[in-house]
Amino acid sequence: MSSPEIASLSWGQMKVKGCSTTYKDCKVWPGGSRTWDWRETGTNHSPGVQPADLEEVVKKGVKTMVIGRGMSEALQVGFCSVRNIN
């Protein structure tokens, strides 16, 4: 099973194929997707993606993870976050 396809992407809007929701930020994994609410883990552009942001998707069994940094590439992805998913 593969993750849902990103159907369209523009500033502040992301549509996932087969899903009626338009996301601002989202997480996708084989068989699903959901809103990525940065407030859940205290994520901000800096220091960036937190290990806890990735944990949920890792638990879904992904084999390859793509972490988008945003339209202007302002979202940082720290070494600690990436190291924790290996």
From TrEMBL:
GO biological process, one term: positive regulation of fat cell differentiation
Subcellular localization(s) per the UniProt record: Cytoplasm
Any coiled-coil regions, as ranges: none
Family the UniProt entry places it in: Belongs to the AAMDC family.
GO (cellular component) term, any one: cytoplasm
InterPro entries: AAMDC (IPR034096), MTH938-like_sf (IPR036748)
Sorted UniProt keywords: Cytoplasm
Organism superkingdom: Eukaryota
Protein name: Mth938 domain-containing protein
Keyword Transmembrane helix part of the UniProt annotation: no
Keyword Cytoplasm on entry: yes
Major location category of this protein: cytoplasm
